[in-house]
């Protein structure tokens, strides 16, 4: 659906993006994970055509549309949500009825505040209004810059569900975050952005299947079916369903004293890359 090739961007002498490469398919959620200042917003400003890149190109499948807001759109503080939607979409829609606006305001849970002036909205509410507008316009490629920032846990959960729904409708979704657990929860693939490059791309298969746990047991005698290794005296097991595995181990006679989640592959890779220890592409 979208192919990003060798994007470079400098601000004066500062090279912020040094050659970004990745593609996003239909029905795919691609998360850009990077620490603060890694260049996520710069990349998104380029994707949404606010900035031009110095080099590189963005190829979008013919006839497909990309849309997203980096930070929030410029809402009018003295207007309510309906008036803002009409104002922001005026170049696309000549007329827009209240029912269609309500439909999307409802999905993001902001409808009950729709008559309030947007100047009185919290960050989370403004984010949800921005998402309502995106849903209303319904592009093929959605861009979400740090979308869960300022959302409470329920709003966050709803947002993650919404991403899944968009994916099921065949959309391509590009999301940025600096929160590792969210990348893991939302992504089909994660691209780790560091030092102006996507240093590594990991797929869900790679980072979800490899859930590892450290188990503390009375003896280190285990059944043959258990996938395990012993590192520094600790037994590390792999499991996709830890409750089931623990139950089976107990039935086998292993006495488990404690259990702890091992650092995930995604976490290990992110820490390694962010600490400057990652390989260059
Ligand atoms: N318009 C600009 N002029 C000069 N430097 C800029 C400009 N925009 C961004 N930068 C610099 O580029 C670097 C990357 O910034 P960017 O906002 O893209 O990072 P980010 O990954 O989105 O960070 P955060 O998660 O903190 O928003 C920073 O060092 C920033 O100071």
UniProtKB/TrEMBL annotation:
Coiled coil: none
Family matches, as Gene3D superfamilies: P-loop containing nucleotide triphosphate hydrolases
Keyword Nucleotide-binding: yes
Domain ABC transporter intervals: 2-220
Keywords: ATP-binding, Nucleotide-binding, Transport
Molecular function as annotated in GO: ATP binding
Superkingdom of this protein's organism: Bacteria
Pfam families listed in its UniProt record: ABC_tran (PF00005)
Family from the record: Belongs to the ABC transporter superfamily.
PANTHER family per UniProt: ABC TRANSPORTER ATP-BINDING PROTEIN, ABC TRANSPORTER ATP-BINDING PROTEIN NATA
Protein name stated in the entry: ABC transporter ATP-binding protein
Species, as recorded: Marinitoga aeolica
Origin organism lineage: Bacteria, Thermotogati, Thermotogota, Thermotogae, Petrotogales
